[in-house]
Amino acid sequence: MARKETAADAANPGRLKQIALTYKMTRKADKKIGLVLAAVGIVTFGVFLAIGFLIGHPIYLGILGFLLAFLATAIVFGRRAERAAFGQMEGQPGAAAAVLDNVGRGWTTTPAVAMNRSQDVVHRAVGKAGIVLVAEGNPNRVKSLLAAEKKKMTRIVADVPVHDLIVGTGDDQIPLKKLRTTMLKLPRVLSGPQVTATNDRLRAMGDLMSNMPLPKGPMPKGMKMPRGGPKLR
């Protein structure tokens, strides 16, 4: 019991520190977050307290109002923090891969399965909906990169549906904040063993990131790829 209590006590400061850090990060993008949270809490508590006085049970409704005010504040804080996080990630390299890592259980994500010299990237996720290819980068360049990767997937796993998405704010693109929701709405057509078999087949094929180390920073001007060297997929 003592060990469990000690572990719980040690975890609480960590949670509080994480909440405080999240609030600070959210406040940088959402200056009104403090006023909004205060308004939600006060209004929710005030409404239930007023109802309590009207029906003659102010203490009971006051306690209930306090609990619901805390819950409502937490929900609003979570949503605005998520919105602020997506706003800061929008347009950043690798943002789509970060979202894919948090889609949920049942999904296996492999970042940067295809990349070109302009650093346009295609990520891959495998789940019960099949294979989902998510591209991020310049819309004009990334379409050909995505089409090539999709063609390769259909050749390797012909019996598995392949979906392709482009992250962005333009036409026929998926906003970063809606990527997770879009993937979860895809129809589930594969069983658990089929998902495992698909992952094993793709893992055996190998990925760009595991087969070729990527240099840091932009490619120097005038530098050419050596003939016969590894080709980008």
UniProtKB/TrEMBL annotation:
The chain crosses the membrane at residues 33-53, 59-78. This is DUF4191 domain-containing protein. Residues 219-233 have a biased composition (Low complexity). Residues 210-233 are annotated as: Disordered. Keywords: Membrane, Transmembrane, Transmembrane helix. The keyword Ribonucleoprotein does not apply.
